[in-house]
């Protein structure tokens, strides 16, 4: 994140699936506190493209005409066509200049966040100095994401990163399409894994977490909490904003 910005610099807009939640509010709060020179706004996609477009238009009205008014960061860990479609429709309706950033992942920091969430539920153990596995209470992990088959394919990179940390087989699955959590469990069973855990590879509001709980129960697996407002999310959002700003100034 740049240490300072000129007057009229673009706002950092977190595009949040749904109508808002505690995790996204916490991410925005930490970004604001740590970067008081940046205008941080939350745009709730549950309001639809029109509602988000109005918010973006307001940001444009406060900035020089034809200047970049907003850097929009969808609060998702991977590709999510429906969410990106809504964001781009909102930008088009607003009439402002805006940059729409790539997803937060895949990234090693998100693999670390998944490891921590698994450990929080007793589904992984960690060396607190290095945050690597020291003795596994499970022998296979499913990284479950939202956003369809494209998102599940992209999550395979994070699955590899998490497998390296845990020294266990880890496979990717989709919460809302194929391959399902059940499909992933069958794949792990075929290679000899019997004690499974599900790691939701989502911030939170972009997925129905009850589906994760139900699917995990159906395959006899434990499951971790969502990534939520883990500091990795804050750092990655700040990094995307900083990279976009560097291209302008």
Secondary structure elements and their pairing?
Layout lengths: L10 E6 L5 H13 L5 E5 L3 H14 L6 E7 L6 H14 L2 E4 L7 H13 L19 E6 L3 H18 L3 E5 L6 H10 L5 E5 L8 H10 L3 E2 L7 H16 L3
Parallel strand pairs: 1-2, 1-3, 3-4, 5-6, 5-7, 7-8
Structure explained in plain terms:
By secondary structure, the chain is of the alpha/beta class. The protein has 2 domains: 11-104 and 230-246, Rossmann fold; 108-223, Rossmann fold (3-Layer(aba) Sandwich), CATH 3.40.50. It is built from 8 helices and 8 strands, in the order E-H-E-H-E-H-E-H-E-H-E-H-E-H-E-H. It has helices at residues 22-34, 48-61, 81-94, 108-120, 149-166, 181-190, 209-218, 231-246, and strands at 11-16, 40-44, 68-74, 97-100, 140-145, 170-174, 196-200, 222-223. Strands 2-1-3-4 form a 4-stranded parallel beta sheet, sandwiched between helices. Helix 2 (48-61) crosses helix 3, helix 4 packs across helix 5 (149-166) and helix 4 (108-120) runs antiparallel to helix 8 (231-246). The protein is elongated, with a radius of gyration of 19 Å. The two termini are 13 Å apart. The model has no long low-confidence stretch (mean pLDDT 94).
């Amino acid at each position: 994140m740049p240490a300072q910005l000129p007057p009229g610099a673009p706002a950092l807009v977190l595009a949040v699936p749904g109508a808002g939640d505690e995790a996204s509010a916490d991410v925005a709060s930490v970004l604001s506190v740590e970067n008081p020179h940046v205008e941080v706004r939350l745009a709730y996609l549950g309001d639809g493209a029109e509602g988000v477009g109005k918010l973006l238009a307001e940001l444009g009205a406060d900035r020089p005409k034809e200047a970049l008014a907003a850097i929009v960061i969808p609060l998702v860990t991977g590709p999510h066509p429906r969410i990106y479609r809504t964001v781009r429709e909102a930008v088009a309706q607003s009439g402002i200049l805006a940059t729409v950033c790539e997803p937060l992942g895949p990234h090693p920091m998100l693999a670390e966040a998944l490891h921590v969430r698994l450990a929080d539920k007793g589904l992984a153990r960690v060396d607190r100095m290095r945050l690597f596995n020291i003795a596994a209470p499970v022998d296979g992990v499913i990284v479950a994401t939202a956003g369809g088959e494209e998102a599940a394919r992209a999550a395979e990179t994070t699955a590899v990163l998490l497998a390296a940390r845990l020294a266990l087989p880890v496979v990717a699955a989709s919460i809302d399409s194929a391959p399902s959590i059940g499909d992933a469990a069958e794949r792990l069973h075929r290679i000899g894994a019997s004690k499974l855990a599900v790691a939701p590879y989502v911030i939170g509001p972009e997925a129905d977490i009850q589906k994760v709980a139900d699917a995990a129960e159906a395959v006899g697996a434990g499951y971790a909490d969502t990534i939520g407002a883990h500091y990795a999310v804050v750092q990655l959002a700040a990094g995307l904003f900083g990279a976009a700003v560097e291209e302008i100034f």
